[in-house]
Every structure is written in structure tokens, then in C-alpha cells.
Write a structure and sequence with these properties.
This protein is α/β, with parallel strands linked by helices and 526 residues long. 49% of the residues lie in helices and 10% in strands. The protein has 16 helices and 13 strands. The strands form three sheets. A nine-stranded parallel sheet has the order 3-2-1-13-10-9-8-5-4. A two-stranded antiparallel sheet has the order 6-7. The protein is globular and about 75 Å long. The protein starts with 8 loop residues before the first strand and ends with a helix. About 10% of the residues have low confidence.
Length: 526
């Protein structure tokens, strides 16, 4: 058993297709909206069917606010390490500390040569990669005296000025399979990033042994090195093979990889939006819960914190999925309504909202029950993050940075725009995670709440009424954008429509959390 105790991270591995750039970016934005922690893209600069990865990462960084970003992995033979170091540091500063660095020694050498790169043997590639790591780390060490000097066989830097330093301690993850690369990972890197499809049975265990021994010989702890894994699979109603089956099967298999092989970052290769939603909503929380429970039972070491705290986002965005709470009193805190309103219009009378039954102060709640309640808040955090993006888009339209048609396109890809409001803003995502434990359909949530506790019927009825109103308010934003295209002096009307959306959505989400987080935990909707 090789559980290194790291916090679990879940991410996406998206094809950087150039045929539909908007779709590529929308998948990255969706990954943040559904609660994933990391978005990655492969880096093949010689492939004309792909967008340039570093340009794409920069664009996605500007379209997101929370999710971390990385190449998976950077093609070092075509990315000079001194320039790459400054690119990474710059984007990390611009994004608020959200960039990680995956590195590879190189492959597809004929294509690399065609782009002006130098063909290397496997041994040369490993030595060149180690020199590059030294160049990158020296350039990031802005406080050290003197210029950067690396007189290597493949990379030579003679007195380059240091800096800028990244916003956070950017980890370097290596895509490694062979012993020399694994040894380099143990000596110099912060993470090991292979793809499961390229591994044979037993390769993870063998790789960990090599990395751990190399780390010890270099005076490092094996726990210093995160173990990441690119995975692929298929969701199905029945099990048909590894990572090909229902979400419960995925949960069990990924938890075993975490506890037995030390994997703490799972990166799903899929361009299917529904796969990303299920991976984030159904699989990731349940894996976290299962691994936390095993660790709490003493079958694995306690978690080791990451070396750097996560930077605070610039605005309210989707929060990462929290670990399960301990049993006891209900500790989930609904998001309060601060009472501030942007618009003079009111689309409903908030004073007429009914309230459900008061919670029983003597009741205790299991970790899973508390996680059920917390998930509603997490889904709503994603919608609040989208609302901030809408305000930002409108300001970009006002500043002439984008046109109204582009803003409409972005808004139409958002979860709130595509959601079936008549079923609840959270129903799809919430029901997906609950399905892992209770096997119910999305549409059963509201009826089940009414059935399990008839006292909630007035609340549920009111929430459904408000969902229809929010749908109409969203349509009003869309109509205002259309009108603005033909009448550029209509910016005031456009801002008014978005202000009304803010008032209605934020008020509704707070009300929904106030009334439902405890019933969702108490009733379980099973």
C-alpha cells in the first residue's frame, strides 16, 4: 500500500481542437463550473489540427477564475526552458496562482525536427529535461543573487536575469514511464504524470518504488512527490471492464488507486460534457469520501497539506468539493442573502415565501448526510461564479473588447442557461451524486421531498414558481443583448437586465439553501 496522503484533485484532459475553438474553451469553462480542480491540454506544437497550447491556456485563464491549468505535458524540445519559465510565471501571476507545469522529454521526433527542433535519443532527452528543470527553477528564484547560469549539454544560459517569480510555488510534473525518467522524477520533480492507458499491470507500483528510492537518495521524502494519473473510461449501466461501468464502479476503482497506488490526482480524458458533469458530481465527491473514511480508520497515513495555500479568487466562484464532515450537529451553512439589490424592479414578493419545518436541535447527521446538504451550496457557488462572468462579459461589451454576439455565445454555454429550471437549479448535479448511493432519477427529487416530508410542499411549490421566473429573466438578458446589437445606445437597458438577473438569482439561491440544505441531509431522497 502506497498512500502518500495528498489531498485528492480531479481534473479534465481536453483535446485542444482547432476546428471548433469555442467548444474547446467551453469544455474548460464547464470543468470549472461543475467543480473540477484542474484543466489540462496536450501540447503538440507540430499538430496543425490543435490550437497552440500556451495560447489556449492563457485564453482559458482569462475565462475562468478558480480552476488550475496545465499542459499535459509541455513539449520541451519545442519550448526553450528559459522562455517557458517566464511564460509560466507570467501566466501564474496573471491568473492569481493557477498554473502548474507538466513537462515531457519529447516524442514524435520526425514532427519535432520538421518544426526546427533537435532529435534526441532517450538518454539525451532525459539529460536535456534535467537541465531544463535547473534553468526553470533558477529563473523562478528571483531573490537569488546574480544571473542564471546553466552550462549544459543541451541548454545553456549565461547570466540571464532572474524573474519574474510565479505567484505560487509552481509544481513541476513529469510525464515519465522508463526508469531514467522515473529516477529524475524522484530526484528533481514535484509530481509523476503518466497515462493509465500506457501502463501495464504493476507499472504503478514499480514506478513508485523507483521514484521513492531516487527521492531518498537525493535527500527528499517520497511524500514530496504527487502522483497524478491521466485516465479514460466510459460510464455505463453495467460493468464491462476497468473504468467502464456505473459511477459506483468508478468510485471503487479510483479509491483503490488512491489508497493502494498513491494516486492523488485523477485527470479524465474526455470531450463529452456529460462525462465531465458525472465525473465532478458523481465520482469525485464519493472518492473523496471513501478515501477520507479509510484514512480516518487508520489504513493510510494522514493527509499532508500542499506546500502552498490556494490563492483567494478575485470573486465568488465555484468552491471545490469539501471532504466529508464528521458526524454530529448539522454544520452546513447556507449562503446568506445580504439584502443588496441592483435593480428597482421586483419580480416577486420575497415576504410571501413560505418556510419549512424548523430542524430538530437534538438530531445528529452522518458525514454522508452532511455532504448531501453541502452539495447544494457547491452547485449554487458555481451559478454565482457564472453570474460574475456575465457581469464581466457585459463590461467587456461596454468597453468594446468583445461584441454582443460573442457575449451571447458565452452565456448560452453556461450551466444556468442550459439548466431545466423547472426541475431546480441543482437537480441534475445533485441527483447525479445522490444516484451513486440511492439510484434515483433526476426528476424524482422534488416529488420525493414532498413525499418524505409534506411540510415542505409549500416551499417546493414556491421554488418551482421562482424557477419559471428566473427563466424569463434570463430570456430578458438575451433579448437585451439582441437589442443592443441593433441599438448600441441600449447599454443601460442591457445592464438593467443583468442587474435584475443578479437580484433574482442571488435571492433565490439563498432562499433555496435556507430551506433545503437540512432537509436534503435529513431526508436523503432515497
Amino acid at each position: 500500500m502506497s498512500d502518500y496522503g495528498h489531498d485528492l484533485v480531479f481534473g479534465s484532459f481536453t483535446t485542444p481542437g482547432a476546428d471548433d475553438p469555442g467548444h474547446t474553451v467551453s469544455l474548460a469553462v464547464l470543468a470549472e463550473q461543475v467543480g473540477l480542480d484542474l484543466v489540462t491540454f496536450q501540447d503538440h506544437p507540430y499538430q496543425p489540427k490543435f490550437l497552440d497550447t500556451w495560447t489556449l491556456l492563457s485564453y482559458v485563464a482569462a475565462r475562468t477564475t478558480r480552476v488550475h491549468l496545465s499542459a499535459n505535458v509541455t513539449n520541451l524540445p519545442l519550448r526553450p526552458p528559459a522562455v517557458l519559465a517566464r511564460s509560466v510565471a507570467s501566466l501564474d501571476l496573471l491568473s492569481g496562482g493557477r498554473v502548474e507545469l507538466g513537462l515531457g522529454a519529447g516524442a514524435f521526433w520526425e514532427a519535432i525536427e520538421a518544426m526546427g527542433g533537435r532529435r534526441l535519443t532517450p538518454g539525451q532527452g532525459v539529460r536535456a529535461l534535467e537541465e531544463a528543470i535547473e534553468v526553470i527553477r533558477q529563473l523562478w528564484d528571483a531573490e537569488a543573487r546574480g544571473g542564471v547560469r546553466v552550462d549544459g549539454e543541451f541548454h545553456r544560459v549565461v547570466g540571464a536575469k532572474r524573474g519574474p517569480a510565479p505567484a505560487h510555488a509552481v509544481p513541476i510534473w513529469l510525464g515519465a514511464y522508463k526508469p531514467r525518467m522515473l529516477e529524475l522524477t524522484g530526484r528533481r520533480a514535484d509530481g509523476w504524470l503518466p497515462s493509465l492507458g500506457y501502463l501495464q499491470p504493476g507499472d504503478l507500483e514499480k514506478g513508485n518504488v523507483i521514484i521513492d528510492e531516487a527521492a531518498r537518495q537525493a535527500g527528499r521524502s517520497p511524500e514530496d512527490i504527487r502522483r497524478l494519473l491521466n485516465i479514460s473510461g466510459q460510464f455505463d449501466s453495467v460493468g464491462r471492464g476497468p473504468l467502464h461501468g456505473p459511477a459506483e464502479q468508478w468510485v471503487q476503482e479510483l479509491a483503490e488507486l488512491a489508497l493502494d497506488e498513491g494516486i492523488s490526482t485523477f485527470i479524465l480524458g474526455s470531450d463529452d460534457p456529460d462525462d465531465l458533469r458525472r465525473f465532478a458530481g458523481e465520482v469525485a465527491p464519493a472518492v473523496r469520501e471513501l478515501v477520507a473514511a479509510e484514512r480516518d480508520r487508520g489504513t493510510a497515513p494522514e493527509r499532508t497539506p500542499d506546500p502552498e495555500p490556494e490563492p483567494e479568487p478575485a470573486r465568488v466562484v465555484a468552491a471545490p468539493v469539501r471532504a466529508a464532515r464528521p458526524s454530529g450537529a448539522f454544520a452546513v451553512v447556507p449562503t446568506p442573502d445580504d439584502g443588496r439589490r441592483r435593480s428597482d424592479r421586483q419580480v416577486w414578493d420575497e415576504s410571501t415565501r413560505p418556510s419549512g419545518p424548523a430542524p430538530d436541535p437534538t438530531r445528529t447527521y452522518t458525514p454522508q448526510e452532511q455532504a448531501n446538504g453541502q452539495h447544494l451550496v457547491q452547485v449554487h457557488d458555481g451559478l454565482r461564479g457564472e453570474l460574475a462572468q456575465i457581469h464581466d462579459l457585459i463590461e467587456q461589451v461596454a468597453a468594446g473588447e468583445i461584441d454582443a454576439g460573442t457575449a451571447r455565445s458565452h452565456i448560452n454555454t453556461m450551466t444556468m442557461r442550459q439548466n431545466r429550471w423547472t426541475l431546480g437549479v441543482y437537480c441534475e448535479s445533485y441527483c447525479r451524486i445522490v444516484t451513486t448511493h440511492h439510484t434515483i432519477e433526476d426528476q424524482a427529487l422534488f416529488p420525493r421531498l414532498r413525499q418524505r416530508d409534506p411540510r415542505l410542499a409549500p416551499v417546493v411549490d414556491r421554488l418551482e414558481q421562482e424557477h419559471h421566473v428566473i427563466h424569463d429573466v434570463l430570456e430578458g438578458v438575451d433579448q437585451a443583448l439582441v437589442a443592443y446589437v441593433g441599438a448600441p445606445d441600449g447599454l443601460a437597458e442591457l445592464r438593467a437586465a443583468v442587474d435584475l438577473l443578479s437580484d433574482t438569482l442571488l435571492s433565490h439561491l439563498s432562499y433555496e439553501e435556507r430551506e433545503l440544505v437540512e432537509p436534503l441531509a435529513r431526508l436523503g431522497v432515497s
